[in-house]
Design brief:
Elements: H1 3-21, H2 31-45, H3 57-95
Transmembrane segments: 26-44, 56-75
Region (Disordered): 77-96
Keywords: Membrane, Transmembrane, Transmembrane helix
Amino acid sequence: MSDWSTIVVIAIAILGHHFLSTRASVYWGAIVPTAFLSYCGWRLFTNHQILMDHPIKAPLAILFVLSIFIVDWGTGRDSHKKKQQNELNKMKTQDI
């Protein structure tokens, strides 16, 4: 895969993950991290080794990317809760 197509795939994954994290159900945000873990596990535990010069770099890179996904998931959930609270406040002010 060329460099540009890799960047596009990563950008789509991050944007899609952020979109799914802001949905009403908590579980939608778990799709991308689960798919990422499954893919990396398949790459690591089969003969399709990730090319890194030190054996600890691949698991650390996976944990780093996974932590980014989890932080983004939390940010999306906070955004959803804030949006929901704003809607409730609007409804309360219209009732008065």
